[in-house]
Amino acid sequence: MIKNTLSYARELDKQDPLKQFRSEFHFPQHQGSNCIYLCGNSLGLQPKGVGPALQRELEQWQTFGVEGHFKGELPWMYYHKFLQEQSAHIVGAKTEEVVVMNTLTTNLHLLMVSFYRPTKERYKIIMEAGAFPSDQYAMESQVKFHGFHPDDAIIEISPRAGEEVLRTEDIIKTILENKDSLALVMFAGVNYYTGQFFDLSAITQAGHEAGAKIGFDLAHAAGNLPLQLHDWGVDFAVWCSYKYLNSGPGGPSGLFIHERHGENPDLPRFAGWWGHHEEERFQMKKGFIPMKGAAGWQLSNAQIFAMAPHKASLDLFVKAGMERLRKKSTLLTNYLIQLIDEINENSFRFNIITPREEKDRGAQLSILTGKEGPALFEYLTENGVIADWREPNVIRVAPVPMYNSFEDVYKFARLLENYSE
Ligand SMILES: *Cc1c(COP(=O)(O)O)cnc(C)c1O
C-alpha cells in the first residue's frame, strides 16, 4: 500500500479503535462537508452530548427550583463530585486530589496563596521563557504583591542560542543553581507556542531537591497526554477545560493538590463556604473547617451551566481512555510529521519547531513558515482548514485523537503541498 495516498489514510481510519468517537462531535462546515479542524489545542469541538446535558439542567431548574440542589439525577449540591473521578483519570491523580471550579488563571492565583509563600531569602520563581501571557502576568503580579521585583524574583529559562525548545538538563541546572533562593517552579506542561512537553517528573524532582514547591499549568497538557501528577509528587496544578477537554468557551478549570497538602487543614488558603466541611456547610457557623483534599479550596457553589458540558465531555474521555487516546495521538501526529517531511524533501518549506521525539510532545505541531506564512494560512482557511496562527509566522495544528481522522491529516498535508506562492 502506498502510504502517501488518500486510500492509505482511510485504511488507517478503518483500523482506528477510537474511530466511533468522531461521530460524537459537531464539526463546523465548509462547502457542505466537515472542516479540517486542527484547532483542538485552542478550542475543542462540541460533543453532541453537551446540548442534552445543558437541557437536563434547565429542566432540573424548571422542575425543582431551589430543590434541584438535592433532587434529580445530578443534584447541584454535589455537582463537583460528578467531575472528580474523570478529572483524576485525566491528570493521574487520586479522586480527592482534584476538583473543578472557577477558571484557570483565577485558580492559579488561588493556589499561589497556598504554595507561593516567599520569605526574604527564598522568594524566586522559575518559569519557562515565553510562557502563556496570563501565566507571566500572574507570576509578575504575585511577586509584586509580596513586595518583590519581577526582574529579580522571576527567572525565565530560554532555549539555547539557535534552538527552539528547552533542554531538560538546562531546566534542572537552573533549578539547582538557585536552590538557596527558590520558592516555586511554575511551568507549563506543554508550551502553547512550541508544543514542547516538558519532563514534569524530572522538573518536580529537581525542584523538590532545591527545596521549592512545584506547580504546573496544564492548559495544553490535560486531555492531550496521560499525566501522573500524584506519582510524580507535583505540589499543585491547574488546567482549563475548553482546549483539549472540549468543554466549551470559558469552560471551568480543574485543579490538583497533592494529598500531602490536601490533608493539611492548616495550609493557608483563601476560603469560601463551598470548601467548608460538607456536613456542617448549611449550619452557617463561624470558623472555617476545610474539606479534605482539593475540595477544601472551593469557594463558591458549582457553576452548573459550565460544569454540565464539562461532564458530558469528561465522560467521553473516560470511555476512550487516556492511554488509548495517546496511542492514537502519537500515530496521528507521527503521520503528519512524515507527510511534512516528504513535502520538505523537494524543497524545504515547513520547519517543525515542536520536538520530533514522541515523548517530548503531545498532539500539536508548530510549523514555522517563511514569509509566505500569512498567505498560506489564508489559503488553508479558504480550503476548509481551521488551524491557529501565531505571530510572527507559526501555524499551530493539533490533530486530536478524540475526533480527528487520518484523512484529516492527509488532506491537510496535501493542501500544504499544493500551496504555491
Ligand atoms: C489557555 C491558557 C490560559 C488561559 O487562561 P484562562 O484563565 O482560562 O483564560 C492560561 N494559561 C495557559 C498556559 C494557557 O494555555
Number of domains: 2
Q: Widest sheet: strand order?
A: 6-12-11-10-9-7-8
Helix content: 25-40%
Instruction: Catalogue the ligands.
Output: pyridoxal-5'-phosphate
Q: Give me the secondary-structure category.
A: alpha/beta
What is the average per-residue confidence, as pLDDT, rounded to a whole number? 96
What is the subunit organization of this protein? single chain
What's the architecture of the largest domain in CATH terms?
Answer: 3-Layer(aba) Sandwich
Q: Distance between termini?
A: 32 Å
Shape: globular
Would you kindly provide a written description of the structure presented here, covering whatever features stand out?
- This protein has about 425 residues and is α/β, with parallel strands linked by helices.
- It is built from 14 helices and 17 strands.
- Strand 2 and strand 3 (about 35) form a beta hairpin.
- The longest helix has 25 residues, at about 320-345.
- The structure holds pyridoxal-5'-phosphate (PLP).
- Pyridoxal-5'-phosphate binds near residues 104, 134, 188, 192 and 240.
- Pyridoxal-5'-phosphate binds next to helix 4 and helix 5.
